[in-house]
């Protein structure tokens, strides 16, 4: 199965906040979080995350998760994603912008 950037986390957010945020808005937040994960794992520089946030925000897309969402609830939603492999959550890890 092909993974789309921002969608693993974005779909989890969407499942918890819809219809408060639209699909694309949730994916925008998912892109930022997946970039943060890539930076923490050393795959992209931290500055790249800032560039991604700036780009998405310039299109008036949200870049922060709505308040009140817990990591536990997000992980619970991601745990049942159809693209997982068994109990392993699959998520894109970017290695560059572009």
Descriptive key words:
single chain; 98 residues; mainly alpha; 4 helices; 51% helix; globular
Task: Write a concise synopsis of the structure shown.
The chain has four helices and no strands.
Topology, element by element:
Layout: H1 7-17, H2 23-40, H3 46-58, H4 71-78
Helix pairs in contact: 1-2, 1-4, 2-3
Task: Describe the overall structure.
This protein has 98 residues and is an all-alpha fold. 51% of the residues lie in helices and 0% in strands. The chain is built from four helices and no strands. The protein has helices at 7-17, 23-40, 46-58, 71-78. α2 (23-40) packs antiparallel against α3.
- Give the strand content: under 5%
Q: How many beta-strand runs?
A: 0
Task: Give the oligomeric state of the chains in this entry, treating copies of one chain as homo and distinct chains as hetero.
Answer: single chain
Please give the share of residues in helix.
40-55%
- How would a crystallographer describe the biggest sheet? none
Overall geometry comes to globular
